[in-house]
Amino acid sequence: MLKKIYHWTLKKAEHPKAPLYVMGLSFIESIFFPIPVDPALVVIGAAKPKKAIYWCLLAAAFSVLGAAVAYFIGLFFWDSISPFFFEHFISQEKFNTTTEVFNKYAFASMFIAGFTPIPFKVFTLAAGASKLNFITFIAGSALSRALRFGIIGIFFYFLGEKAKDIIEKHFNAITWIVGLLLVGGVIAYKMFSH
């Protein structure tokens, strides 16, 4: 099923109205959709490199809008959706650990969730359920999504189709490395700032 959704996403990305699909996909991916937006952005970037940055930032904006919706779903409807959430996305024990981390490192948690391959939707719903500060939530989400998608846009803008192979082969590794560096930076800051 996921493979079919993935191929459907790539097909839509080749359509003349691809930016509309990317906006919609970015929005729902932050709430529940299982396939990341990145493959669609790669296809669009390869097709029209000079518009890649614009489309990637548009995707980031709609991803943050979707994240805000997910936040309020988690905030107001958590009791209703939590059984489904725990069955399909994350265990209750891991969720409780996540909320503890949120309370200590709110901005860093949202930034890492939005930038790395960690399923963003898990964190957007959990942020609302754990009543994370909304401004901190939006700031972390916006910065991380703009950087993550912006990397794709910049690669295609300057490298054209050559960037497609680079990103498809190494994107997860790149985001994980940067994410780990950020975690290390946060830890180092906490250790040496006292």
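the 2nd protein, sequnce then structure:
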Amino acid sequence: MNLKPLQIGELQIQYPIIQGGMGVGISRSHLAGAVSANGGLGIISTAQIGYDEPDFEKDQEAANLKAVGKHIRVAKEISQGKPVGVNIMVATKDYPAYVRAAVEAGVDAIISGAGLPVKLPEYVGDSGCKIAPIVSSEKAARLMLRGWEKKYQRTADFIVIEGPKAGGHLGFSADNVEKITSEEYDGEIGKIISTVREYEERFSRKIPVIVAGGIFDHEDICHAISLGADGVQIASRFVATEECDADERYKQAYIQAKKEDVEIVMSPVGMPGRALRNAFVKLIEKKPLPVSRCYHCLEKCNPAKVPYCITKALINAVRGDIENGLIFVGDNVGRITKMTNVHDLMMELVQGKQAIPSHH
């Protein structure tokens, strides 16, 4: 199958591939910039994005907001001005400030999940920044589209459907994640697409639908497109690239992981997440780790009650302390066996297996 470009309003992305946002620090400017430079849409995750800024320990939010602008600018330089997006979790403490910082830095698109971004249109205003909610069900898609139409007389610029095979925080109950089959979920994707079609008619414009979660190769992309999607979002595969912003040891953890090393953990905020079963995960299953300090990262987190601090766990991991950190992964991590670079990975995704590796 020849993949058509992804058109989001006036933004044209050469290939219908969005790189999924991965926090803390896994997808920042280097990865996102490289993906955009190579014809995809690179996405920076804003989750504790400033963890390595000098003033982070003193004032997380100020450090993060400064880093949002910095990483968007760097990614734009790397991509040579091609579109770059950010992923901002709705559960982020002071969510509107992050949206405004991204818009101010000239970001092209904002993808928002971990909650429903009901007021996102208000925060981007008439900046022209493209916005997409992440939904996992037809019910959530309808709720979002109906809400935005009613309150703001506008619609989504595109929509990301995240299935149960995704990495990190999932929009499903822990039960459903384990039980739902790919066939059943294909049916749900079909329902979401027909809901989106109604809104396309109402607003007489195209609303691209992007399928995410467990997309591994060219065949998976073709399958998503055969269901009526316009493109895909892929995250885990981009971790084992030279350009990924994580520590080398983190990338190696992905390469060495086997299918049986993956499990569903409960995040401190009560959402299930898919992660590697390492020493840290085994430890938190036995006993809670008292939180010595709060990083004010999530709106609904109470440090006195949570089993561990997710920020600290994710920062440890991105820095390469992989036994004392939380490593979020997608369902197919066991199939990642070697290091590559963004250019070669994009070529393989676009052309299928017969991509010729470049020597550079």
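The chain is about 35% helix and 15% strand. The chain has a mean pLDDT of 95.
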